[in-house]
Amino acid sequence: MATSRAEKVTEFLTCVICQELYTDPCTLRCDHTFCRKCVTAYIQTRPDAIQSKTIPCAFCRQDTKVPHPSRPVEEWAGQIKPSIIIQGLIDTQADVVKTGSASRCSVCEKLGETTPGASWCSKCQVSLCERCVKMHRASPASHDHDICDLSGEIKVKRGRKVMCREHKDEVIKLVCKDCHKAVCQTCCVIYHRKCESVITIESMMPTMKYHLRRNAEQLSKKVHKKQTIVQKTNKTIGRIKKNKVGVERHIKSAVERAIANIKQKEKQLINKVRDITDKQTKQLKADVKLQEIEMQMYRQHCEFIDQALVSDCEMDLYDAYQAWESGAVELGDVRDTDTADTPRIDDIRFTPDTDNVQHILDDLQLGKIDVTYQDQGTCLPSPVLVDQIDGRMAGDEVEPDLRDVTVLLVDGIQTVVVTDANNTCVKSFYTRNNLTCQSRLPLDDHPCGVTQLKENQVMVAVPDSSQIVTVEVTPDLVLLSTITTSKEYYSLAVLSPSSLAAGGVACVDILDMAGHMLRSVTTHNNETLFTFPGYMCVNNKGNILVSDWGKKSVTCVT
Q1: Contact, 22 vs 33, CB < 8 A?
Q2: What is the pLDDT of residue 375?
């Protein structure tokens, strides 16, 4: 199982181009990793990639943009960031030596001997026998090296030696800070003779460790912040699920009550139908009984008359005639007249009020769902100070008065641009290669507002001289142009490529890029809008948000 696992790790660390373990691995934008030399060789086989100034992936064909395509094609792969994690896995896989192995003394092996190694020098990266250890410790150059005993099952990690790509036998030990490139001794002599700052990597170790620890601390703070957000979000999810069950139960209860009311209406209508039909049916049954009684009486009279007609007795015939004349037989006719006046149900039907019912159902309000949102200030953790920039800079004559600030991303470098009124200059602060850098651009008068014009350009308001200057951020500052305006403006905000808003005394003016006023906004409904609009910005809807020093208010202008 251990062998299978090792084979899988080796397969994971194998370049798909050369089918060997990665050498100086680099990862493209598509997250596929290759040897840097393999990427360079692959680019040279793709003329279309050279023409489009992109690095194609040999696995998925996705293109990676070259940061600096003006440099030679052979240096394109060198611009891709190294894959530190992959390299660490390779180091762990290949450079960990178990002392139980048959390692030999590196010094003796060069002399043609095969003496087993007993110790390991982590500084020189060699294994030593007992005799060579004594000589190693006796040498002034190596007497303070850490030597580890190889007996037992102790694991010793070898340090990684990075060899120069051009001079294969030389180890990279130097850094040219002017070119921002790690080089070997021969490269330094040949290519970097005119560079002013070439130092050893070892001398940079304290600085690099400081910045890496600082970055690690910042990342740890961010991790803690994210963990707090995740925990609170999970609690919120649990609370929402619990509330959902309760709300669903209340909704079902309201629906059941509504259905019960509808069923009650149904029962009332059915009872009304039953009352009407039962009453009428009872009356009709009484009428039927009366009719049957009268029919029986008529039959008896008919029989009596029939008997009188066939009788030989004259007196029987007279009695029957006398009974008819007296009106005894006509009583049923009177009753027929009386019952005919009573209303009889001819038909009964139910006509549903479909339109009204549908309207009621459409407008039926079982209730409403109210959602209460937590205050964002309470559901999110408190802000954490990640970094702080000192606005003071070499060349400042007085204490800085930083008036306005904007942040740009120039060639992947986050750059902070601020205006310093007291020292009459614009300043930029940025970090390059883990080193804090600064730049300043002196002006004739005191600058105030600053706003971003393009990806690498800002505009600065200089009210004392009624000017607006355009500055290029490289991220160092370079003055491009100056326009003169008819008023003194303290704040700026770019509206479009052809217009900007400028805040002056008691007004906000719309200007073209030549400084000509297109429109002035001062009042609304005969009320003065502004006193001293010191800051402004444009939101994502295109509206201008104006912060007024005098009125202590923020006004939104469309």
Answers
A1: yes
A2: 55
